[in-house]
Every structure is written in structure tokens, then in C-alpha cells.
């Protein structure tokens, strides 16, 4: 869609348009990304996306009323279908699928409302970021901000390794009633901690989580953000910036391995393979040599350091495999029972995979009563929002990949790689909130590339 500048607005004899109201400031997007560690420390974390959606929505409406049209992303109808399915499926919150803990719709309304609020906030982020011009927020600056968050992810991973028990009470947490702030879900939102302590390979070990709340989210964001550091380094004019970017990428291998996160390892493989294929198809055969050398160096590092033993121990201990298979079966069973709109949200299983007598208690929130739809975005979509919601969600991002498939710029390849990586990750990771935020920002960059005509 063609952009209309304030200077190009024809005179109609009425009052002149207010150019200031037509402009969109960069600060709502930039402040989320640049200061995310601060938001995390304050206890706002993912809540900052909902808070910043308020001024973004106001500014979008103000610009529209000032006479400047708003662009909607290509394929937006798919996303609207998804949002409608999310709302309609709320009507099924009162249903109790077979094998799940019985409950009432009112008790399930709050988590369902939270998810819809976040989906709505990220929709605003998508539209806002896509409507920003180069003068308001240059794409290079947005890339640098995303690359910065990869640095933050690596630093958080190192913190989780060396100080796994590090945690503190945030200001927001102090303001909450004790009965609320002690809930596990609320803790994940407002209580900053460096790592999750989990027994994966025989004894309890810290697994990096900061500043993303969960180890799995940390791994998901690692894959979604890594490409942006590479692009930012390539765009940098300073040799020092390129050097430190390389150092960060090399150091990142350590927390990535120590996290024991197999989904992360698969995601990095998908990321590298996709980028390599794109470059080979573009005739840049040097990428084959680069990937080969990098793979060889990684192999030597794993053989020559204790990291190799960590990988071997993780591959020999697949404790979560049985639980994941159990939950996938339950999700598919539920999908078959309500295939169109799903159940509006997740459900807890009766007991565990081996017995219905094992359940959650005050002393053990994670014993039994596993969350159906909590082990991957795909399973959550199918179970919570049925075929309609799943088609809308996947259709939007798939359409974006197809629509912008000819974008061979560094930004275009990195953005499409992030979306492709997210498709593989949805088999074991949930996307709300930050992973989906980085997905919509990747989409926005592809969209803005096509508007500016810089796709090579």
C-alpha cells in the first residue's frame, strides 16, 4: 500500500492536517526492547507488552483520525480469523473433556482472558511496528534492538549457570496480596529469577531462564533472536562491534548446551539449515564452507570440553518424552471431541500418565495434573481453539512466508528464518508472550522491507 506523506495530502480548503498527530513515535516499541531487562527486574516482564499496547493503540487511532490511513499487514484476514476463534471458543470454557479435572467456566475465564489480552496486545504491536516509517524507526535500529535482546538472552543464560538460585522480590510483586503473588503462574510473571532448578540428568541443576521466565521460553527466544545479532553485526561499520558480536555467538554455545534444551538444539539446526538453503539458492555457495567450518569447530569444542558430556547425558535421559507423548495424545483426543472451536483454554489431566491418583497439591504444584496444551503451541491451538483458530494462526505466518519469499536481503532472510524456526518450535514450545512478540516483529520487518522495496 502506498504511503502518503503529510506534504502530499491535498488541500481541501479545510483546516490543515496536524503533522504531529500523523507521526508515530518509536518509543513504545523501542522502549520495550531496549529496556526489557529493566521491565523484568521491576516485575513487569511480559506485562509490558500489554501496558505499551495502550499508548500504541491511542497513537494509531489518533493518526487515523488526523487523516493518515493505516496499513494492515498482508494476510491480516487470517489473523482476524484466529482472534475471532479465540473469542468464540471462550463459550466452551465450561466443558470438561474426558480425563480432565472438572471445573467451572468462571474459574477458567481469567487465564483465557489473559491470553486474549496478550494476543490483542501483540496484534497492536504488529500493526504499530509495520506502520512506522524509516524516519520514525529505521529498520536497522529495530534489528539492533532485537540483536541486543539476544545479548541479553546470553547474559541471562550465563547468570543462570553461575547463580542458578539467584532471585529477588520485584517492586510489582511487593504490591500484590500474598495470596496472589504466591501462585506459580503469577510468580512466573512478576518474580525475577535466573534459572529453573530441574532434575533432568539425574540430579537437580539450574537451567537458564532469565529474563524470559521459563527455560523453554529462554531456548525459544535464543533461536528467534540469534539471527538478528548476525544481521546487526553485518550492518555495523565498527570492527569492534563485529568482534564482540562474534564473541557473543561463541560464548552463547555454553549456556545453550548447559540448558539441556533439546528443542533449542533442534531449533538452531533448523535455523542454520534454512539460512544455508536460502543462500545456496541465491548462488552464494560460500555459505556451505562457512557452515562446514562452524560445524567442525562446534564438534571439536564438544569433544574437547565437558560440554560434550553434557549433551551425551541429556540425550541419554529423555525423562520428558513420556509426559510429552501423553499430553500430545490428550490434546489430539480433545481436538477430535471438539474439532471446530476447541475448549477455549487448556485443561489439567486427572492425575499423571501412569495413574489418576497422582495429583497437584499445595506442596507440589507440578505433581500430576499435567496441562493439556501446555507442551507446544500447535497442541494448544488445536485443543484450545480448534481447527479454525489453528488455521488462522498458521495461515497468517505461512502466508507471510509465501508473500515475502523473494526477499533475499539480510533482514528478509533473518526474519523468514525466525518464523520458520518458530514453526518447528511449536511442537514443544508455547509462543505466548515473548516468542510471539518476536515473530510479529519479524513479520513487520518483512512487511516494511516490501514497502521500501529493499528485498535484495
TrEMBL record:
Matching InterPro entries: WaaL-like
Keyword field: Membrane, Transmembrane, Transmembrane helix
Top-level taxon in the UniProt lineage: Bacteria
Transmembrane region(s): 38-60, 72-93, 113-133, 145-166, 218-234, 241-258, 264-281, 286-307, 382-402, 409-429, 435-451
Keyword Membrane (UniProt): yes
UniProt xrefs under PANTHER family: TEICHURONIC ACID BIOSYNTHESIS PROTEIN TUAE
Full protein name: Uncharacterized protein
Organism: Paractinoplanes abujensis
Amino acid at each position: 500500500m502506498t504511503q502518503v506523506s503529510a506534504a502530499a495530502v491535498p488541500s481541501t480548503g479545510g483546516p490543515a492536517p496536524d503533522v504531529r498527530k500523523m507521526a508515530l513515535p518509536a518509543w513504545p516499541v523501542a522502549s520495550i526492547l531496549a529496556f526489557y531487562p529493566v521491565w523484568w527486574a521491576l516485575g513487569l516482564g511480559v506485562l509490558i507488552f500489554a501496558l505499551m499496547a495502550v499508548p500504541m493503540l491511542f497513537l494509531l487511532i489518533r493518526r487515523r483520525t488526523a487523516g493518515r490511513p493505516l496499513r494492515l499487514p498482508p494476510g491480516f484476514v487470517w489473523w482476524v480469523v484466529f482472534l475471532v476463534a479465540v473469542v468464540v471458543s471462550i463459550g466452551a470454557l465450561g466443558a470438561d473433556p474426558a480425563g480432565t479435572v472438572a471445573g467451572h467456566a468462571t474459574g477458567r475465564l481469567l487465564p483465557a482472558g489473559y491470553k486474549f489480552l496478550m494476543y490483542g496486545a501483540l496484534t497492536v504491536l504488529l500493526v504499530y511496528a509495520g506502520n512506522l516509517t524509516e524516519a520514525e524507526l529505521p529498520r536497522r535500529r529495530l534489528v539492533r534492538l532485537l540483536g541486543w535482546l539476544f545479548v541479553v538472552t546470553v547474559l541471562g543464560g550465563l547468570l543462570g549457570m553461575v547463580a542458578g538460585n539467584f532471585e529477588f522480590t520485584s517492586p510489582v510483586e511487593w504490591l500484590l496480596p500474598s495470596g496472589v503473588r504466591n501462585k506459580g503462574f503469577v510468580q512466573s510473571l512478576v518474580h525475577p529469577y535466573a534459572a529453573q532448578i530441574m532434575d533432568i540428568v539425574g540430579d537437580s541443576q539450574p537451567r537458564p531462564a532469565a529474563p524470559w521466565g521459563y527455560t523453554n521460553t529462554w531456548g525459544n527466544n535464543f533461536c528467534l533472536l540469534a539471527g538478528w545479532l548476525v544481521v546487526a553485526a553485518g550492518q555495523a561499520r565498527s570492527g569492534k562491534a563485529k568482534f564482540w558480536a562474534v564473541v557473543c555467538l561463541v560464548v552463547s554455545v555454553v549456556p545453550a548446551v548447559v540448558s539441556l534444551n533439546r528443542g533449542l538444539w533442534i531449533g538452531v539446526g533448523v535455523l542454520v539449515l534454512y539460512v544455508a538453503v536460502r543462500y545456496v539458492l541465491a548462488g552464494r555457495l560460500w555459505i556451505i564452507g562457512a557452515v562446514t567450518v562452524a560445524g567442525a569447530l562446534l564438534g571439536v569444542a564438544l569433544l574437547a570440553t565437558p560440554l560434550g558430556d553434557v549433551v551425551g547425558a541429556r540425550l541419554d535421559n529423555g525423562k520428558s518424552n513420556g509426559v510429552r507423548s501423553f499430553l500430545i495424545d490428550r490434546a489430539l483426543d480433545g481436538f477430535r471431541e471438539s474439532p471446530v472451536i476447541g475448549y477455549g483454554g487448556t485443561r489439567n489431566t486427572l492425575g499423571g500418565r501412569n495413574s489418576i491418583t497422582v495429583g497437584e497439591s499445595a506442596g507440589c504444584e507440578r505433581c500430576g495434573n499435567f496441562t493439556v496444551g501446555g507442551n507446544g503451541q500447535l497442541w494448544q491451538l488445536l485443543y484450545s481453539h480448534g481447527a479454525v483458530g489453528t488455521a488462522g494462526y498458521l495461515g497468517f505466518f505461512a502466508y507471510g512466508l509465501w508473500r515475502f519469499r523473494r526477499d533475499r536481503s539480510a533482514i528478509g532472510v533473518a526474519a523468514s528464518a525466525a518464523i520458520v524456526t518458530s514453526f518447528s518450535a511449536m511442537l514443544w514450545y508455547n509462543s505466548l508472550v515473548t516468542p510471539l512478540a518476536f515473530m510479529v516483529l519479524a513479520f513487520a520487518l518483512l512487511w516494511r522491507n516490501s514497502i521500501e522495496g529493499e528485498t535484495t
